[in-house]
Design brief:
Blueprint lengths: L1 E5 L10 H9 L2 E4 L17 E4 L5 H13 L4 E5 L9 H10 L4 E4 L4 H9 L12 E5 L12 H5 L4 E5 L5 H11 L6 E6 L7 E6 L3 H8 L5 E5 L27
Parallel strand pairs: 1-4, 1-5, 2-3, 2-4, 6-7
Antiparallel strand pairs: 7-10, 8-9, 8-10
The structure holds S-adenosyl-L-homocysteine.
S-adenosyl-L-homocysteine (SAH) binds next to helix 4 and strand 10.
Length: about 250
């Protein structure tokens, strides 16, 4: 059995209870050494075979899984954050489906949420934005044309950009061209939940300069939108005059 497990954003206690239990039972662990905190491997039992996927190809990862399966072993494939976001998950699952190898997926806390926590921010603020766009700038991996950053920026919604901190000049240009005002709040969150986490608050107009000054070019999320600063409306759910299925509103 192959267990795909989200490791969380970095702090070793931000893995789920289920993920940690699977890690403790695993005979083989394939982990994303470039982004997952090595402290998580302290969960592994003595004798567990450990492979760093950042130095492996897809075929090599699959070969390790297939061998482990043939030997009747349990494998954990440990992904950073949640495996369903920029995790190259599907190609692994499809290859296992083809080979009739059983697997399951345990979700993790995405760095998206680690970053919001670091900022004490809520992406979906009433009166500001009720949508979160999760995207990236096209780099060596292309982004479909209809999802170009410039066109997504037109919505003015809350936005989180993965894999783009090394291209802050272009990010800033595209966000401005799409219609975010230069004074729209923005933030860079480097290594959310790690001991060396850093938070840099800026605006869309100062994003590139702020990143350069802080020396942040990787392992960071770019967050953009009024949710980081703008005035907002309080939630209806907790408004005394608002009736819900659980509480009678009082005027
Ligand atoms: N599946 C992961 C994302 C993997 S893509 C998740 O759900 O978080 C790798 C990118 O994620 C990095 O380039 C960076 O943009 C972001 N990232 C991963 N861990 C991070 C962290 N602890 N803090 C900030 N950004 C992080």
């Amino acid at each position: 059995m192959i267990h795909f497990v989200g490791a969380g954003p970095g702090a070793p206690d931000l893995i789920t209870l289920r993920g940690a239990a699977l890690l403790r039972e695993a005979d083989v662990v394939i982990w994303a050494g470039s982004l997952v905190n090595p402290a998580l491997l302290d969960n592994c039992k003595i004798g567990c075979e450990i492979f760093d996927s950042s130095r492996m190809t897809l075929d090599e990862v699959l070969a390790v899984m297939e061998r482990a399966e043939a030997e009747g072993k349990t494998t954990v494939r440990l992904h950073t954050g949640d495996p369903s976001l920029y995790g190259a998950l599907r190609e692994q699952l499809d290859a296992l489906r083809q080979r009739d190898v059983a697997f399951d997926v345990t979700p993790g806390v995405s760095s998206l949420f680690g970053a919001a926590a670091a900022l004490g921010a809520e992406f979906t603020l009433p009166g500001v934005s009720q949508s979160l766009i999760v995207t990236r700038l096209a780099g060596r991996t292309p982004v479909p044309e209809k999802e170009a950053l410039r066109s997504l920026a037109r919505h003015g919604a809350s936005m989180a950009l993965f894999l783009s901190a090394g291209m802050l000049d272009e990010v800033q240009t595209e966000l401005l061209a799409g219609g975010y005002a230069p004074d729209t709040p923005a933030a860079l969150v480097y290594k959310a939940s790690w001991p060396d986490e850093r938070v840099v608050r800026c605006t869309v107009g100062t994003l590139a300069a702020a990143g350069a000054e802080a020396g942040i070019a990787k392992t960071a999320l770019i967050l953009v939108g009024g949710f980081l600063d703008a005035p907002y409306e309080k939630s209806r759910l907790y408004d005394p005059s608002f009736t819900t299925g659980f509480r009678e509103g009082k005027t």
